[in-house]
Amino acid sequence: MDFNDLTFVLQGNMRPESGHCIRAIRGLFPDSKMVLSTWKKEPILEEWDLCDHVVLIPEIPSFDGSESAKNLPRQILSTQGGLNKVETNFVVKIRSDLILQEQFKLYLKSVKPGILYAWRNFTAEPRKTGLLFHLSDLLLVADTRTLKKYWDQPFDSNLASNLLPEQYLFWSFVASESGYSLEDGCKCSFEQIRRHVKAMKKFVRILPKNVAVLPERLQKHDNSFQRDKNYTNATSEVLLLELAFIARKCKRFLKL
Question: How many Å apart are CA 202 and CA 205, to the nearest integer?
């Protein structure tokens, strides 16, 4: 990948680490574009001058529903605001307090169109839903068309109320690309696991954990499955055995 053809979209509130996040990106990628998308009420940082564009999003009216359902439209709106400024062929969406490392450069060179590259691997939330895995949106890499489509999913407040925002976004995207049913994804049968793996292997690659650093305040709460291996390089049989084991644990939580 030519780094001149790459835009970083920083999304989120201004946190204690946000200045460091911006400086790290500009230091590692001086030739890339950088867009910051945040809320109008956020404090202005001097590092904003390092960005090519700053998009200030107005707060949206709140509505009744779960916290997940309320947060999802805010995430979509602020991310789309940044993506609308992207003119390059490739884009990195990054949370505004994540610190990129030098190793990230190496993995960007292997990025291919039509594939979604994510950090943090897959996360299970079996006590909330039977949907076994989803991607974290802390750090996503793709060609611009793919990432814009990822963040342009129809909003269903009923489904969103039962899923975490990241679960809703990822499986809505998979459904739009493959016909996989988001509702079916919330079931916990072995056949659903098989289809789950097939869908993931087609559209997803996982970045290793050493490409970025979580803020210290979040590290103790990190419940992602840390794997040095790439799920997509593992055999289907290994994946199915691993997911089947996790599914049995999920069933105990869900009392299925």
Answer: 9
Is residue 153 within 8 Å of residue 61, measured between CB atoms?
no
CA dist., res. 149 & res. 53, Å (int): 21
pLDDT tens-digit profile of 167-210?
788 878 877 776 655 555 455 455 665 666 666 667 778 788 88
177: left (phi over 0), alpha (psi -120 to 50) or beta: alpha
Measured distance CA(211)–CA(159) in Å, rounded: 33
The distance between the two most distant Cα atoms of the chain, rounded to a whole number of Å, is 53
Integer Cα distance of 87 and 95 in angstroms: 20
Name the CATH code of domain 3-254 (choices 3.40.50, 3.90.550, 3.30.420, 1.10.3470): 3.90.550
Spell out the domain ranges in the chain: 3-254
**Nearest Cα to 121, choosing from 27, 243, 255?**
243
List phi, psi (to 5°) of 157: -65, -30
Strand, coil or helix: 129: coil
Neighbours of 19 (CB within 10 A): 17
* Encoded tokens for 153: 């999913």
